[in-house]
Design goal:
two-stranded antiparallel ribbon; six-stranded parallel beta sheet; alpha/beta; Rossmann fold; about 250 residues; 9 helices
């Protein structure tokens, strides 16, 4: 048997601990409403997105963030998680929070392993209980200006990248993955779920639900508390298309 301290619990964020829309979509809407996006950065995003061979690579294109400082992520988080719960636009599934607390009570090490931007995932720690580690998609920062360059610093944390991150965490913290837990909602979390002895498909997509049934994995459906519906926000791509058209019109 493994010691309790050598067991890990790895949580995906978007769709698993948090309902749609994704954190990046929420963050982008905030930037647009606050008029923080630079027209030149949006134009750069549009030009890259329309280059040959870029179809399907949208999640890797972060050029719209060029020139922003990481401190804007803190401002977004503060505005999204108001002290008065009736004003919050960022809400966690109650079952997810309860599961984190349960793991911590068992002296398990808890980690967020997410494809979202690391600055956003890190900001969530202030709203979550106990000590939690984060492995997410890192953004490159200019060493002179301390601003985001719009490029990734390392891997996009999806698919097998999540599994590699878990292997690194397991080695660093002497975690026995065979005795550990993982929670994900998408087929892109497959490698993450397969890496542990106790995988759980949370609010799974159709493909993941089928895979979970085939492998005998636990399937759970986590919901928001009654009366706390997720705020309806537009999808990321339509937002950027509108922003892109505006930038092109400004710079014909």
């Amino acid at each position: 048997m493994s010691r309790a301290g050598s067991i890990g619990a790895f949580f995906d964020l978007d769709g698993t601990l948090l309902p749609a829309p994704s954190l990046e979509t929420r963050f982008l809407k905030y930037l647009i409403l606050q008029r923080m996006l630079r027209r030149s950065s949006v134009l750069k995003w549009v030009l890259r997105a329309t280059q040959p061979g870029q179809i399907g690579k949208f999640p890797l294109n972060k050029t719209y963030l060029t020139g922003l400082r990481e401190s804007v992520a803190a401002s977004w988080a503060e505005s999204s998680y108001a002290q008065d719960s009736s004003y919050r636009t960022l809400r966690f599934f109650d079952e997810g929070l309860a599961r984190i607390v349960w793991h911590q009570a068992q002296n398990h090490r808890v980690f967020l392993v997410s494809g979202t931007l690391a600055p956003l995932a890190s900001q969530l720690l202030r709203f979550l209980p106990g000590e939690i580690g984060v492995m997410a998609t890192e953004l490159a920062t200019d060493s002179f200006s301390s601003m985001w360059t719009g490029e990734l610093a390392g891997e996009h944390m999806v698919g097998f990248a999540k599994m590699r991150a878990m292997l690194t965490l397991a080695a660093d913290h002497q975690i026995d993955l065979r005795a550990s837990y993982a929670y994900g909602d998408s087929v892109s979390d497959r490698a993450m779920l397969e890496a542990v002895g106790h995988p759980e498909a949370v609010n799974p997509s159709g493909r993941l639900a089928q895979m979970a049934r085939q492998h005998g994995w636990t399937i759970s459906n986590w919901k928001l508390a009654k009366g706390q519906a997720s705020s309806a926000q537009p999808r990321l791509i339509p937002i950027m298309r509108r922003a892109g058209r505006a930038a092109v019109e400004e710079h014909p």
